[in-house]
Please model this.
Amino acid sequence: DHRVPPAIVAIDMQGKLKKIASGKVRDLFEVDDEKLLFDASETVMKNGIPEKGVLLTKMSVYWLRYLQDRISDLKTHFLSLDLPSSLACLPSDLYESIQSRSMLVRRLKMFPIESIVRGYLTGTAWAEYSTSKTVNGIPLPAGLEYGQKLPSPMWTPSTKAGLGDKDENITRKQAYGLVGEEVGKKIEKLSLEIYDIAAKRTEEAGIILADTKFEFGTDGEDLVLADEVLTPDSSRFWIRDTWEQNLGQAQPSFDKQHLRDWLSAIGLKGKESIMIPEDVVMKTAALYQEACKKLIG
Ligand code: ATP
Ligand code: MG
Model:
């Protein structure tokens, strides 16, 4: 039985900040009308991957700065790694643990799509391709293998489902229906540009960025890159040097695929209150750390 009582990891801000949302892997706290604390706190799986929140935050911040330096008019939600002063009175161990896995971000109105970019054929794109030779409705050449590099990176948006529901791939037209054509086109262009820059960087670090998911919001004027960015949770990171020899089969990876495989092997649907076996925890933790080391040093 992998289900355990949620009390085990109840960790919070001791009422100092109001929680406004809880996602699968993080909590959002209100700082004021314009700011949020984005806390990668491991809310769903009850014995989380050690230091995962810390690594995800480190990587997101690394990428947000990296991209900011390379795309001059890019707006991102990142503000700082400082905690709001209202938390100063927390016990120091709690304060430090929150600080290590949180970032202060601009509070945005989020667009209701996941902006996925794929450079390689895998996941739900492979499932669609193998039945219809299309990806998000777009025809592709016949004869592509699982894991193969796509002729060029593709923007394949999906819906943004709530906790426990599945995101659905949608066509470009359907995405325009959700966010408007003008915004949709901007999101596509920027996502492809970011993918390109990031894929070059990961390649140098021995990692193939097979696919990745972005989320965007608006500050009322411009499009703003939000959420976590280019982490092993939001991306598939494959090992460059073994990619070719593994074409057509599962790719060795630095991402959460091990966790996905374990979850589907035990047939769990919802992910609430799961106790993950120690070996899966340790393996995933080691891979996250290695990916982080390769990229950031
Ligand atoms: P998953 O990423 O696993 O699909 P999720 O997106 O439901 O799950 P989380 O990623 O844990 O949940 O939670 C982050 C939530 O915060 C998302 O709903 C995301 O859209 C939202 N968000 C991210 N950045 C901002 C921001 N700057 N302002 C407001 N909301 C944000
Ligand atoms: Mg998310």
User: Anything to note?
Assistant: The first strand starts at residue 18 and ends at 22. The CA atoms of residues 89 and 231 lie 31 Å apart. Residues 21, 23-26, 28, 36, 77, 105-108, 110, 163, 215, 217, 226-227 surround adenosine-5'-triphosphate (ligand 1) (CB under 6 Å). Residues 181-204 form the longest helix (24 residues).
